[in-house]
Structures are given as structure tokens and as C-alpha cells.
Amino acid sequence: MLMLTVDISMYPLKDDFITPITWFIERLATYPNIKRKTNALATQICGPHDEVMAMLSKEMKAAHEHFGQAVFVCKFLPGERELDYQDHFGKGGHTAGANE
């Protein structure tokens, strides 16, 4: 099964931007076959390619119909990525290019 990971940010074009963002994220959380992790800047989702794309199409359209204009910025990565990834940069590891 072809998997897809997407990093998505919603930017509603209105003063009250928290309400539409929260509404959108809560709707994404209702899909049982799709993993979701939200941080302060974006939401990452991962699941079967066709299901992720269908979900995004449906929910982005619903957001535009419900709240009006909003910009969605997405990064699409083929495959399944670890949504709980923790980096180790700056923790004693070699930094390529630093002082070389």
C-alpha cells in the first residue's frame, strides 16, 4: 500500500483565525486510518495515499465553504514518516560544515 505523509498549515484570511484552524484540525482528527500530529506551526498527517488525498480534498473544500478564503500550505512526502521524530542536533553530534 502506498503511504503519504503531509505537512499542512492553514492560514484563514480573517481576523479570527484560531476558530477555523481549530475546526479544521478537529475534522482531520476524525479519520481513523490517518495518523495526525499537530504542533504550534503545522499539522502532520500520514496514511494511505488515496485516503489522505481524499480527506484533504473534502476538508479543504469544507473549510472554504464554511469560513471563506484561507490559504493552505502543504508539503507532500511519499511514504510513511515518523510523526514523533525527535532530532539530536546540537547535542554533541558532528555538525557538517561548522568550522570546516
TrEMBL record:
Gene3D superfamilies: 3.30.70.930
UniProt xrefs under SUPFAM superfamilies: MTH1187/YkoF-like
The protein's name in its UniProt record: Thiamin/hydroxymethyl pyrimidine-binding YkoF putative domain-containing protein
Originating species: Neiella litorisoli
